[in-house]
């Protein structure tokens, strides 16, 4: 095949040299030469189509088995070319050349494969020099920014808003009036409750007087009945009265006693039934409630802070704010916090007092520091159909950066652990087999496995510590596309970067 290519190359080169020295051909001459070249290519293609690789990988013409003719008959040549070669003759010159080149390439590949030219090159691997670095394990979490103290101001009073005293962005103090409601109906309700209370008190006073007089008379009746019964007892003993008279005086005494004991006595004085005292208590409670509602007609802030939302306006009813939003939202923006929910699988790495680096789009690439100040004692559902549980934590923003505001989402990175001047490898260089983790290096163009334990891990790298006593050295050729297929001693071929 090589000899064929060389001869063809020499022939074409000589032809080009002859063309360069000869006068410029006319159109007929050009067509004649192209036809000759096309016929030559056809002959070469026919020769190639009859050459196939032998079992030894060399190209030799295969001998075609001839069909035997009936006895006594000679096989007649047909004079026809194979159908494929006839189709080739119909191809364009360019297509013939491309087909010949591709066919030659296939023949070369098959020859190499048959001769085992690639079997000793080894497993292709990519490597980087092993080096010592610093590594940090971080936990990145997102959450809303809020004030350290916040309150939604609402009212359950069905009263019209008459005055608005603040707007969004105003600083307010605890107890400051934010809005005033219509007091007309509230003042009327207070008056009605006051009248009911006064009536209950007066009723009890009247009943106390009646009870005192009634009790006093009952005592007197009891004393008289007692004296009558004692006298009748003596008379009965002397036979002066009958048994029936004695029993009648005894019954009168018992009736007087029951009458006297039916009164409520306080300090020896009869007082009204306890139900009248209960009526006074109920009336007093209702009066205090109406007074409180009247007081609440002045809507006040319960904290020091900034008015961050105003959802009400003059003319609305306080309990009918649009979309059931609070009338006002107030937050203490002097100190900000992030409310973040941590997976149950990571919460063990979080501790109160841990530092955090906080970033947000509003900071334009800057960061602020934070500190974990609270970890919830209970978990909650993550939601979204997940069975995972999450635990809320609070990170307090430090430094008072004025660019960070409440109501946005920020990211906090918690530093879990770090290591310096240690051997660090990319995750792609690690592989597991059984219960062990390995890295692999190239030594004398062969694989050497090294079992390791992992130290500090980041998202893409890990600290490695050999467990078999191997001493790692900077500059070792670390295989970055490692896997269990890399057995100890396996030949490798280092791929260029």
TrEMBL record:
One of its GO terms (cellular component) is efflux pump complex. Residues 339-411 form the YknX-like beta-barrel domain. Residues 8-19, 29-45 have a biased composition (Basic and acidic residues). It comes from the Bacteria. Residues 424-493 form the YknX-like C-terminal permuted SH3-like domain. Pfam families: Beta-barrel_YknX, BSH_YknX, YknX_C. Residues 1-81 are annotated as: Disordered. GO terms for molecular function: efflux transmembrane transporter activity. This is Efflux RND transporter periplasmic adaptor subunit.
């Amino acid at each position: 095949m090589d000899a064929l290519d060389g001869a063809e190359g020499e022939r074409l080169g000589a032809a080009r040299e002859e063309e360069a020295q000869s006068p410029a051909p006319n159109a007929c001459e050009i067509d004649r030469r192209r036809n000759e070249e096309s016929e030559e290519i056809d002959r070469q293609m026919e020769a190639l189509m009859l050459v196939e690789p032998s079992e030894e990988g060399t190209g030799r013409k295969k001998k075609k088995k001839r069909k035997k003719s009936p006895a006594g008959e000679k096989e007649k040549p047909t004079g026809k070319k194979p159908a494929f070669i006839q189709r080739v003759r119909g191809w364009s010159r360019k297509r013939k050349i491309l087909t010949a080149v591709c066919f030659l390439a296939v023949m070369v590949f098959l020859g190499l494969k048959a001769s085992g030219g690639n079997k000793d090159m080894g497993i292709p691997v990519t490597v980087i020099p092993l080096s010592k670095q610093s590594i940090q394990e971080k936990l990145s979490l997102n959450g809303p920014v809020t004030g350290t103290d916040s309150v939604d101001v609402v009212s359950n009073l069905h009263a019209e808003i008459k005055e608005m005293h603040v707007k969004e962005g105003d600083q307010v103090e605890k107890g400051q009036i934010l809005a005033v409601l219509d007091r007309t109906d509230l003042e009327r309700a207070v008056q009605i409750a006051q009248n009911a209370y006064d009536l209950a008190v007066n009723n009890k006073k009247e009943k106390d007087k009646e009870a005192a007089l009634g009790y006093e008379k009952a005592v007197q009746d009891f004393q008289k009945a007692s004296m009558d019964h004692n006298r009748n007892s003596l008379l009965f003993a002397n036979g002066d009265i009958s048994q029936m008279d004695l029993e009648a005086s005894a019954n009168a005494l018992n009736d007087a006693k029951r009458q006297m004991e039916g009164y409520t006595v306080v300090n020896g004085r009869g007082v009204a039934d306890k139900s009248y005292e209960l009526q006074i208590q109920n009336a007093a409670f209702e009066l205090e409630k109406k007074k409180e509602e009247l007081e609440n007609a002045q809507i006040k802030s319960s904290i020091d802070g900034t008015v961050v939302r105003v959802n009400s306006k003059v003319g609305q009813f306080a309990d009918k704010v649009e979309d059931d939003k609070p009338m006002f939202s107030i937050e203490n923006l002097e100190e900000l916090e992030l409310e973040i929910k941590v997976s149950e699988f990571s919460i063990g790495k979080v501790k109160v007092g841990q530092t955090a680096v906080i970033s947000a789009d509003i900071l334009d690439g800057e960061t602020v520091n934070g500190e974990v100040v609270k970890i919830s004692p209970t978990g909650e559902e993550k939601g979204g159909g997940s069975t995972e549980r999450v635990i809320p934590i609070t990170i307090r923003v430090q430094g008072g950066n004025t660019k960070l505001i409440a109501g946005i989402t920020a990211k906090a990175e918690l530093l879990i652990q770090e290591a310096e001047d240690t051997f660090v490898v990319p995750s792609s260089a690690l592989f597991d087999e059984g219960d062990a983790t390995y890295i692999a290096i190239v030594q004398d163009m062969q694989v050497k496995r090294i079992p390791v334990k992992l130290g500090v891990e980041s998202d893409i790298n890990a600290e490695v510590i050999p467990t078999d006593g191997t001493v790692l050295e900077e500059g070792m050729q670390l295989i970055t596309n490692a896997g269990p297929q890399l057995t100890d001693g396996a030949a490798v071929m280092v791929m260029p970067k």
